[in-house]
Each structure stands twice: as structure tokens, then as C-alpha cells.
Amino acid sequence: MKTRITLSQLEFNCLIGVFDPERVTPQKLIVDLTLELDGQKAALADRLEQTWDYDSLTKQIEFILKASHFYLLEAAAHVLARWVLLPPTSDETRPRIDRVCVRLTKPAALPGEAQAVVEVEAEAKNQHYGSENKSWGTVNIVEETRRIGIYRLTILPGQSLPEHYHQRMREAELVLHSGLEGTQDQGPRRALSVGETFNWTKGQHHSYHNTGQSSASLLCMDSPPFDPTDEILSGETV
Asked: 92 with 195, same domain?
């Protein structure tokens, strides 16, 4: 049984565009998103864990748009589609999205009542994602464009993503699951809330530790895309 979920007329202010004023002044972007999935388990169980949380998905879309500073609507729509079609982690019970349609409208791009719209449709069966196994868990490579990289960092129970910093990359992260604790500027660990975001400045130390019984993930944006030589462990000599 096919189910369609639509998030309509989501509005966000973000940096998007190729011209100089657009690189410094946020402007409105309207997002329409339609997901196709098998919703039978959710219908029978009548439990949120068996389907997609609209609020969480909206926050993920907002994070990607605001953190990535896209130049083109095409790039933004493509990355959003790839993120939504990424398979759930092994500890998640929500179904995989089979198909997605992402529609982005930029109201201020043209004069008068005219509107610039870009629409992307994609199917899960045509998507392939890179992954890297780490001592602490897994990195899923969602997409790497010329300017940004989008990743899902999944930390295993009881494991830590070591304290580190970057000298060149601009990095932002969104907490996706409960159970994570983090440190900032070499301070004490504290519990992190689902939906909490971080915009790490260059040279700012940070780390994560999973205290839960299940894997816990972060949505990560790096600009430029991740460079392993720029991930410097705290205490290392550069």
C-alpha cells in the first residue's frame, strides 16, 4: 500500500544565490516536499516511530538549507532529495522512502509576480551512497558537491567521536537521535537534545559520546567537503 506524505509551503530564510548581495543577505525560500513510502506498518501500529516525524524532517531541511549556503536551487534540491532517500540506520524503525519530489521556489529571483521554481524527482532504487567504517561507528556520504559535503555520522553505543578541530573547513552539525553527549572548547561533557545544532568555528574543539543503548546519529555539513587532513585531534601538533 503506497502512502504519500507532503510537507507544503515550508518557508526558510537562507543564503542562496550566485550574486554578491545574495551571498550576504538571507532571502526567502519555499519548500514543497512529497515522500512516497509503504505506510502500512505505521497505520497498523499507529506509532510515530514507524513513520516520519514531520517536525524532525522540517528541522533537517532547514538545517541543510541554512548551513550549506547553496549557490543554485538545483544543488539545494538535489542534496535534499539525496538526504531524504538515505536508508534509515539499523536501529531505526521508520521505513525507507521509495520516491521523493522536492520543489523549491525562490520568490525574489524574478520581478513582479513571476517565480523561479526548481523541481527534482528521485527514486531510492537509483541512489548509491558511500560509507566509511570508523572505530566509533559509520560515516554515510550523502553528497559532495564542489562546495559542500553532507554526511551522516552514526556513533555506536558506548563509543566516542574523539575531540578534534578544523583549520580550514566550516562545519555545522544537527543532533538526530537521543543518547549523545558532547564537549565544546575542551569543556565538560553535557547531554545533547535531538534537534540541537552546532556551527563550529575554525579551531573550535568538539567531540561526541554515545551513552545510549542504540546507535545515535548527527547530520553534518562541511564546507568545503570533508578533508581528513583537516581533522586535527586535540593534543596533536600541527
From this structure: no
